[in-house]
Amino acid sequence: MSIARDNVLDWIKLCVNVIHENKDYLVQLDAAIGDADHGANMDRGFQAIINKMPEISDKDIGTIFKTCGMTLLSTVGGAGGPLYGTFFLQAGMKTAGKMELSLEDWSNALEAALSGVVMRGKAELGDKTMVDALTPAVKALKEAVEKKLPIGKALAQSADAASQGMVGTIPLVARKGRASYLGERSAGHQDPGATSTHMLLKAAADTWANC
Fold first, then answer.
1. How is residue 79 annotated by DSSP?
2. Which residues constitute the domain of residue 96?
3. pLDDT, tens digit, for every residue of 94-135?
4. What is the pTM of this model?
5. CA distances from 37 to 44, 90, 183, 193 (A)
6. How far apart are CA 107 and CA 91, in angstroms?
């Protein structure tokens, strides 16, 4: 089984809906340790993506991801734009020309996305950022590839790992971004970037459960 281009489009549409539905929640999380704009910024970016759908729906997966990345770069303010833009751009480079993805293809794309985010944000595991959700998700996915697990099960495990990483940001003291200005006061709050990352990966697991 594989993840077809239409499955990818369905995932992106679900991401748009999930981010929109959780906009206020993400704002609440960001209000505690940031500028209270993560939800609004992400929603604006993904609403811009949905407007691009008619022009990308017949393109290859790499082009779809790159278009999403460029759209987020140009519409999302704060740190989210460069980081999520890089996420999709790097995934797009790994999937260039492809009309369907194997589990290994998606694993490689997500690994490239993580590398791009780390390079762009200069964050590492434990800094209380989206990297704390994305790193364990990639690790779980690569292990699933090695075990030759079905796509649905592999993605569920990846999303679960992202969830654990997201919750794991709560006790951390932020070392990057706006939250780092709070020092010890940033502890006790869930990172909004890790939360939105989990939302996207959970949406992938939900959309591609039967691929």
1. T
2. 3-207
3. 999 999 999 999 999 999 999 999 999 999 999 999 999 999
4. 0.95
5. 11, 25, 20, 11
6. 10
